[in-house]
Amino acid sequence: MSEARIGISEEALAAVRFDARGLVPAIAQDAASGEVLMLAWMDRAALLRTLETGRACYYSRSRQSAWMKGERSGHLQIVREMHLDCDGDALLLKVDQLGGIACHTGRRSCFYQRLEGAGWVTRFAPIKSEEEIYRER
Amino acid sequence: MSEARIGISEEALAAVRFDARGLVPAIAQDAASGEVLMLAWMDRAALLRTLETGRACYYSRSRQSAWMKGERSGHLQIVREMHLDCDGDALLLKVDQLGGIACHTGRRSCFYQRLEGAGWVTRFAPIKSEEEIYRER
Fold it and tell me: What is the helix (H) or strand (E) element at residue A85, kind and residue range?
């Protein structure tokens, strides 16, 4: 998938099985390193906006609205590939993560806690602070 | 995380935020190649069984019960690492995929459909047929 605007057929869109809330989970994976960056949700509108813009758009369950990832922080995700699983109920996006920061905490990935022994251990420090990320825009 | 039985503290367990259905999405990623293999769901029991056995266990929403991945096919997932995201509502497992087949269709990953132009294109052929997988056990 190039950066250019693309279309999707009605048939291909129908293959995506949104759940009872109208949502499908979407995994964002760094296209270059293979690191899993985050898991978020898309409704139909967010999926279509993702395809139209080539930038990952998700649905915020807390804010109950679609948003373009990075619209405030600048940490946009350029979508290079989109994959659908065997059941049609999960998406995998291979992305270029602008700024190298996917997480709102300023870390490169949201999955920064690793289970070691009995507890979660934070693996890497923020590249930027939350204040920095949201102040500079 | 080694293959050995491990414990998890109550505090660490409480950091995992199960949804209203008591489920949390879990991404399985090949520990060696970094390929995303599947997305499935865990309830508390499946998570605990995963930690006790070192094998990925999930919750089947269709069958409404926990199952060990590969219990019928032999395609077990040996869990090498477990990660939790910033919101505590998604898990990432790094696994060794026995048989090199994660998908019930016999493919190495469940994400075998890639969007190309307007439609989904199947990327790779099954390593084994479904008949083979489930007959031989």
Answer: none
